């Protein structure tokens, strides 16, 4: 009965807020609700599915060349399952935190709850600081990766400008995301983003199969430990979109329904990533070791150019997904979070874009940077911290008895969930952060020595006059 009461409280605030914000029935308000102001389970699914794969779709064939076909498939399935589990843990902790606060009559209608605040409310300021550091750093470099991906992709349509110049241009374009208030307003963007990813994934699959295997194709992966763990860590990064999980949940009218959304999103994403990565690796083999962007090896056609353009738009959307939580943190820091003026908030957010822009120009290593971010940041943000936070939050018998969300009985209840959490922490700490961190840093340093920082055109083919 207590759980039913809590769900009514959580859902009630959002329904109330929707009615207060837009009670009119004009054509404008109907269009706003249709395209702009979303909060349903479908919106959350589109957001999770669209945000989860993004530009990593283009680097997964590169990971397969490092891992080999069998390991590439196994790691995708394994980390997809692990990612879905820790997303579930985050949703449990969010509902627990929010319910406790709403029982204390805290009103969140003008405040977006974030992961570090959940950690603060449940475990204290030290956990808040750790969560804030890892989450913000991950989101910062996640945004950097989107800018690098934009420049890398557009180059395959127009190589009259080098990739660094394209980074300048797309940095300015992506800065316009400061005008999107919150995840409520990504309804149409999330839907379009998923369509774009789906088209690109099936283009890669069909185009590779149609192209066939290159002459004397070789599939030698895995060849070295460094390449193997670098590839594995890139896949760990692929299923680590949890840095915006709490914000997506908070944008839902009934966030308690988030439980299975991430799992369903992951299952759909696997139908895109497994065929595309396998097909491209089958066709080009070891050539991918020197071409981290799958577009680089496919012949230029109208279908490829369409895929490139769609991925550019999608990367703009994903940049907004990664940056919006950073905007919220910055707004709270400078005291602008409750400001209703869209233009004042947009102006206040601009300083967040500058360091992202700068870092994308310094380290334009499309592919290797994914693995580095995955091993050093995603491993903690997405896997280790949620698993440990869940165990500590519910370590006492009273906390378990009064928990809003209990672990599924088919997994063994509390004992089973704690066992899974311990496995996640140990595995990711040793394999993801330990071996993955070592391999990714070795590979990243190799890129710096080979190409240098501020390189104008990373992995560019010879320019044709």
TrEMBL record:
The chain crosses the membrane at residues 73-95, 132-154, 166-183, 188-206, 226-249, 261-284, 307-330, 350-367, 373-393, 414-435. It is found in: Membrane. Keywords: Amino-acid transport, Membrane, Transmembrane, Transmembrane helix, Transport. GO terms for cellular component: membrane. InterPro entries: AA_transpt_TM (IPR013057). Signal peptide: none annotated. It comes from the Eukaryota. Its main location: membrane. GO terms for biological process: amino acid transport. Pfam families: Aa_trans. Residues 37-405 form the Amino acid transporter transmembrane domain. PANTHER family: OS05G0424000 PROTEIN-RELATED. This is Auxin transporter-like protein 3. It comes from Heracleum sosnowskyi. The lineage of its organism: Eukaryota, Viridiplantae, Streptophyta, Embryophyta, Tracheophyta.
